[in-house]
Amino acid sequence: MKLRFLCKAFGLLAPWLAVPGAAAALRVATLHPLLSDLAQQVGGPQVAVLALVAPGVDVHHFSPSPQHMEQLAGADLVLASGKQLENYLGKLRDNLRPGQTLLEVGKSIPSLELSEAAALLESPGLEHRHGGVDPHWWNSAENMQRAARVLATAFAQADAPQAAAYQANAAAYAKRLSELKQWARREFSKIPPEQRKLATAHLSLGYFAQEFGFRLIPVQGLNPEIPATSQDLAAAVDTIRRSKVRAVFPEQGVNPKLLAKIASETGVTFAGQLIADGNGTGPLASFAGAFEHNVKEIVRALAP
Question: In the chain, what percentage of residues exceed pLDDT 70?
Fold first, then answer.
């Protein structure tokens, strides 16, 4: 199946990205790289996109600068991920001009509570509960389909003459994501059920695991910035050995040294890097590009 048509890189570093020669009626600023991709998919030539968070940037540590706020002055709509990912939204909202709208795209998408995410873990000793919800909703094809519908509705409200175009774009994108999801299921069928275990640095793939039936081993819990204790490391090593895990997966933007140490100690494969925070670059800056990459890396490491 050819999926390259889903993986176009949009050059998101350019301000107010729009299709050349098109007169964009709507200006949309985004606070997550995958929202930039999604806005282009749903908006098409009618929307110009300003990506405040560029591809490759750590979405957990981004905070808008005064320059960013100046750029926001030209936006009609500002898209945030939501689910408590951006702790600066209150201040940002206070500084928007009249008529601007801030939309938390993930707000209406069903949340994976961290207590529910614990049920996806391979070992209860690795729960690292912090309360609240898992903010990584974008790691699900179904959630991205929901997000496309959210954007289509918001764009239509802001630009009523193009409402039909936005709805059609969202439906077409959702159809392509359904095809991508079906392809992923066929690929994952190559992995024996007992080997569908993802050992990563932090708990970022809960929605993905829920969608495709994987178990999780997050060595550092929800937050990779909190150093793993000796007890964490021992629990991870024990789980990997006891569960006969085949590989550990480093993540884009997370220091791989701890996972490399675990791989060396347990003798399992140190697999290819996954894009878990939506912070890929080049062809991996789109949802489809990152998703296809992740599926291939997981199958390469876990299939017999």
Answer: 87
